[in-house]
Amino acid sequence: MTMEHRFSPRLPFPLHVALWARGAVVAQGVCRDVSRDGMYVYVDPACLHRNALVEVEFMTPDGQGHLCLPAMVAHCGNDGIGLVFDELAEPQALRMLRAYLQSLPS
Q: Whole-model pTM?
């Protein structure tokens, strides 16, 4: 059994997301939770494999912002996939997400 290491707490984040790869939508699902470093998305796990590179597209919950974050599939579960955000590829979008998460009540 493996143990996942979290660098920051996960927060509920039930938004619809689209996962893009090579310029096309490869899956659509609902985010279960998000952290500063990644998110878990309910999708058919067969549509992507571990280490696949994707872009996660979603609207912020307040409807004011649209984010597209590069990520890598860290693991595939029975009901979805765990994603790790690419820290370097889209720093401004990641800063926007992190600022939004900080503004939420704990």
A: 0.82
